[in-house]
Amino acid sequence: MHQELREHIIKLLNTGIRLDGRKLTEYRKPIEVEQGVVKTAEGSARVKIGETDVMVGVKLEVGEPYPDTPDEGTIIVGAELLPLSNPDFELGPPGIQAIELARVVDRGIRESKALDFRKLCITPKEKIWMVIIDICPINDAGNLFDASSLAALAALKNAAYPKFDGEKVDYKEKTSKKLDLEKTPIAVTVIKIGDKFIVDPDIEEEKAVDARLTVSSIEDGTLCAMQKGGDYPLTTEDIDKMLDIGIEKAKELRKHL
Amino acid sequence: MSKIIAQDKSISVPGETLAVGMDILPGTGAYRDGEKIVAKRLGLVTIDGRTIKLIPLSGRYIPKTGDTVICKVIDVGFNGWRLDTNSAYSAMLSMKDATSDFIARGANLTQYYDLGDHIVCKIVNVTSQKLIDVTMRGPGLRKLKGGRVIEVDPNKVPRIIGKQGSMVMMVKDATRCNISVGQNGLIWIDGEPVDELLAIQTIRKIERESHMSGLTDKIKEFLENSGKK
């Protein structure tokens, strides 16, 4: 459907330049991270990468643990793609895109062990903290994955526990106790178009994607999660290259936190 | 007694009363409400004798017969194509207006124009219900191959084209790009990567500074300076 556009992008990429004049592995500018934007949430953040704008809120609720992990808290990530942010999005129950976005963010945080779930336990087998992360794109100008995971992390960093007396949670009062974030898993989506690899695609480049790989890594470069998308397959060499780019670029993004 | 309230060259907002009196006529962008002449949109008030019209400063494209537009194919039907006109209404390109080739019954129409293709076409008819008919018969009307399409404010299109196409010609010559400007605010650009970027930069600059006088000279200078780098 977007064959003409794809060919044009490839022609440009072969000369080392992208549609908007960026280099292949260059993020859009400016990258802005703003914390504490929603007062009613326990933690929140708004991240802008170029024109892309994502807001994330963190709520903390007291709930029952799962039977197989009686002494561990949990996280629940949800994403809602509003028609406001992109005319292609539709109202209604979350579609494949929204579910994938939420799961990629969830996996990055979960598998990196950024949050120690044991510390979220209040009384084993009875009460735990559930960390609910809601992703809400304000404007989708491409690369929601990276923006959302960065925003989720910033919101978690910002989150403080509400007052809890053992029975009821008082959301009006926040305590000084912050969520204990031990690692910072940063997701970087590397795109393959033709035989070239790029990061931070804009909306037009996203239409022409052959394959994409979202790479989440922590401070020391340890890989913690991956997600492949797009119609075309990837060779092991491709994946190696994409991982290198992803881990390298994560270091750059981490500076904005 | 009739009275013109708005000043010439002032900015009006929708709903603003521009004049009172039955002997004053509403032009484009204004309408009559009893005695009053009221602004329909955000625009620059132009008083021309007894008529008051508005030069729109914002808003989406409204299809007009005779406009050359750049459209995107959004549906391929049995006897034609449906096109996105970058306005609130979609257009219909019928088979007889699309090509002079013989098309056999039941032929695959995607070999002419496929989903997602951009084409330059001309609006031949807009009904009161805003059903739009377009044609591909005419000079310069074609399917766009390669290049890219950018979107600009349709109200700035006359400035981008310039008097008798002077502005767009200047950009074309300086950047060695092929450029097609649609009245609906879509612009197609094809050239070498660096030149394309310069063309886009220039067009964005024209769009931004469209209200300034002496724009042609400014753009000329801008293009000359960028050429040196």
List keywords for this structure.
heterodimer, A: 257 residues, alpha+beta, Ribosomal Protein S5, domain 2, 5 helices, elongated, B: 229 residues, OB fold (Dihydrolipoamide Acetyltransferase, E2P), Ribosomal Protein S8, Chain: A, domain 1, 3 domains, 5-stranded mixed β-barrel, 21% helix, flat
Q: Can you give a write-up of this model?
A:
The complex is a heterodimer of chains A (257) and B (229). Chain A has 257 residues and is α+β, with helices and mostly antiparallel strands. Chain A has a single domain, classed as 2-Layer Sandwich (Ribosomal Protein S5, domain 2). Helices cover 26% and strands 34% of the residues of chain A. Chain A has helices at residues 3-14, 96-111, 144-158, 203-207, 236-254; strands at residues 31-35, 43-49, 52-63, 74-79, 121-123, 127-139, 160-164, 169-178, 186-193, 196-199, 211-217, 223-229. In chain A, strands 1, 2, 3, 4, 5 and 6 form a six-stranded mixed β-sheet that branches. In chain A, strands 10-9-11-12 form a four-stranded antiparallel β-sheet, sandwiched between helices. In chain A, a hairpin with a 2-residue loop joins strand 2 (43-49) and strand 3. In chain A, helix 2 crosses helix 3 (144-158). The two termini of chain A are 38 Å apart. In chain A, 42% of the residues are buried. The model of chain A has no long low-confidence stretch (mean pLDDT 93). The N and C termini of chain B lie far apart (62 Å). The mean pLDDT of chain B is 91. Chain B has three domains: 3-56, RNA polymerase II/Efflux pump adaptor protein, barrel-sandwich hybrid domain (OB fold (Dihydrolipoamide Acetyltransferase, E2P)); 68-135, Nucleic acid-binding proteins (OB fold (Dihydrolipoamide Acetyltransferase, E2P), Beta Barrel), CATH 2.40.50.140; 148-228, Ribosomal Protein S8, Chain: A, domain 1, CATH 3.30.1370.10. In chain B, a hairpin with a 3-residue loop joins strand 9 and strand 10. In chain B, 21% of the residues lie in helices and 33% in strands. Chain B has a five-stranded mixed barrel. By secondary structure, chain B is α+β, with helices and mostly antiparallel strands. Chains A and B meet through helix 1 of A and helix 4 of B.
